[in-house]
Design a protein that fits this description.
The complex is a heterodimer of chains A (308) and B (286). Chain A contains 13 helices and two strands. Chain A is an all-alpha fold and 308 residues long. Chain A starts with 11 loop residues before the first helix and ends in a 5-residue tail after the last helix. In chain B, helix 7 packs antiparallel against helix 10 and helix 10 runs antiparallel to helix 13. Classes of the chains: A mainly alpha (308), B mainly alpha (286). At the A-B interface, helix 1, helix 4, helix 5, helix 6 and helix 7 of A face helix 1, helix 4, helix 5, helix 6 and helix 7 of B.
């Protein structure tokens, strides 16, 4: 790849040709490792996932081609649809909750006053902690004997005695929602903040001069101008929540009574606990299509205002 | 005069309200993190009680850390696994994306844009849906249950972000700089290493931070791809502890594990916050 000195007498055209070919080769060599990785660990597995979904594929033993039987079976898989419905329910609730916290935080943190940066950092710190660590942390806070919440609730007289918050569906669900909002609000705050900072102060100022109230300014200027940013935050939040696994596995173990088993959790348990790899792949394909469709629809709806 | 005093009173009130909110909200976000660290330094018996007050009453103790050290093959094995996986993911992500970013930014070759879009668009596909085939491919390659295998998966998952960052970083460097060096007869690799690398270093740092945080914290892929207990990374080990695989749950030990997992992330972020936020907003502004 070294660029050798060309003999000065070489014809200019040929020289350029060989040089550009060498350049092309160099470019391809530079991107080759990345392409190889994407091919081996993403594109091929993706094709394989579809191929596997057409098979009865046990962990050991020979796979058997069964056309679309896995897909017709998943239509009757009650637990899959319950999990999917639960995942959608969780996604809607948690996304609303995240925005309800992150938007005010972004508006708050946009101002540049002394200490604002410090507050912003504090809001953001839970983001850099992993979902695994955060889940283990909250599993403890939610524990009936050693945790914080049931003790405090009983102490304040909100409950008669210490109750196990993870024994009931609603308290489990809302506890996890609170944990996820705590963990991800800062992330969404930063995304929304970039949108807010992209709005020129002159526009806001002009509207203020014209006597627009702060609510009107927010509704008529801030929100419309932030459409793209909101779309991005929304897509990231929805996609992340539709794929939720760690917190439900670590904190609740899918309980109580399997009622917090998410879609990914169900795929995981079918593939790696029951070892129905083909069936798990079919479930994965369905989830994949749902996610891509949701993302595309959201992009469409929020990118161009006419679409709404 | 009355007006100015009134406005200064109002200003004071606004200040109190502003900082009051900041302090209270900030504490709410920080409290769980601090609580976990504090309880990890309580003696085991005390750590079993509800954590009020949050700090150790009977003096600081490292008993929970001693208990943590006893699980399975010993905490050093698991910490070592996690460190090796993260370090390798960081190094490999940086090298691969440095090359690819340079290639996509500075060279012309067939299908360049299509290949770039292909790599970037893999973010749309959830990796959760290809874990089963990944498991089989790694088995075929003899990499199942190896840290190398999981590193390759992590590097691939980070690629869309890493390459996007690095291509932008190279795009921002004026062409004239390397042309001058090329005229002087320096090889492509030498130009990349000597001239370009220092100029795109902020991008490299961003790629490295994200690669570290992602690989250090990743749970699901590690849970599936590492079935040999000795190969567990910290999140997989701690989830096993929490699920009671090592006997009764010792919450003090669990929180010392959480502290061990959180500490590098928090420290790294506080030191390199600028680069982290840059990475976060790069995609948002686009």
């Amino acid at each position: 790849m070294t660029s050798q000195q060309q003999p000065t007498g070489a014809q200019p055209v040929r020289r350029r040709n060989s040089r550009s070919r060498r350049n092309q080769l160099a470019g391809l060599l530079f991107v080759a490792p990345a392409l190889a990785l994407v091919l081996i660990f993403f594109v091929i597995p993706l094709g394989m996932a579809f191929w596997m979904s057409l098979h009865n594929w046990p962990l050991l033993g020979k796979p058997r081609f069964i056309w679309f039987d896995n897909y017709s079976r998943l239509l009757q898989d009650t637990q899959f649809w319950i999990s999917l419905r639960f995942t959608v329910y969780y996604t809607v609730i948690v996304t609303i909750a995240i925005f309800a916290v992150a938007f005010p935080l972004a508006l708050y943190a946009e101002r540049s006053r002394p200490l604002t940066k410090l507050y912003r950092t504090a809001f953001f710190l839970p983001v850099v902690v992993g979902f695994g660590s955060a889940s283990l942390l909250w599993a403890w806070l939610l524990d009936v004997d050693s945790g914080l919440f049931s003790y405090v609730f009983a102490h304040l007289g909100l409950t008669d005695k210490r109750i196990n918050l993870l024994a009931d569906f609603d308290t489990t669900f809302w506890s996890i929602v609170v944990m996820v909002v705590w963990k991800t609000a800062g992330f969404n705050m930063i995304i929304l903040l970039t949108g807010l900072q992209g709005i020129s102060t002159e526009v806001q100022e002009a509207a203020r001069m014209d006597g627009a109230s702060s609510w009107q300014r927010f509704r008529r200027i801030t929100l419309p101008l932030m459409r793209r940013t909101i779309a991005l935050a929304l897509i990231l939040s929805v996609a992340g929540s539709m794929l939720a696994f760690d917190q439900f596995y670590i904190i609740a173990d899918g309980g109580p009574q399997n009622r917090t088993v998410t879609a990914v959790y169900w795929i995981f348990s079918q593939s790696f606990m029951s070892f129905r790899l083909g069936y798990g792949a079919a479930l994965s394909m369905v989830l994949l299509v749902i996610l891509v469709v949701i993302s595309v629809v959201q992009l469409r709806l929020l990118r161009n205002p006419e679409g709404v | 005069m009355a007006g100015s005093r009134k406005s200064s009173v109002r200003g004071l009130f606004a200040d109190v309200r502003y900082h009051g909110f900041g302090i209270i909200a900030g504490l709410l976000f920080l409290a769980p993190l601090v609580w976990s660290v504090l309880v990890s330094f309580k003696p085991s018996v005390e750590a079993r009680q509800p954590p009020l007050p949050p700090w150790p009453v009977d003096g600081f103790s490292v008993q929970s850390y001693d208990n943590l050290a006893q699980y399975g093959a010993g905490i050093w094995t698991y910490t070592g696994n996690s460190l090796m996986v993260s370090a390798a993911t960081v190094v490999a992500s940086v090298i691969v994306s440095l090359f690819a970013g340079y290639g996509f930014s500075r060279f012309r070759f067939p299908f360049k844009n299509a290949l770039f879009v292909l790599i970037i668009s893999t973010v749309m596909i959830p990796f959760q849906s290809i874990l089963t085939p990944l498991f089989l491919i790694l088995t075929k390659l003899g990499l199942q249950n190896t840290l190398t295998g999981i590193v390759l998966v992590y590097v691939t998952l980070q690629l869309p972000f890493s390459i996007f960052m690095m291509r932008n970083a190279f795009d921002a460097v004026p062409k004239e700089i390397e042309d001058a060096a090329r005229v002087d007869g320096a090889s492509v690799l030498r130009v990349l290493y000597r001239i370009m690398l220092p100029l795109v270093l902020p991008g490299v740092v961003t790629v490295a931070i994200f690669a570290f945080l992602a690989s250090w914290n990743e749970f699901l892929a590690a849970l599936i791809l590492l079935t040999d207990q000795k190969k567990y990374t910290l999140p997989v080990l701690m989830a096993a502890v929490r699920s009671g695989q090592f006997g009764t749950i010792d919450w003090g030990a669990v929180q010392s594990g959480v502290t061990l997992m959180m500490a590098p992330c928090l420290i790294l972020f506080l030191l390199l916050q600028r680069y982290y936020i840059r990475g976060l907003t790069a995609g948002a502004v686009k």
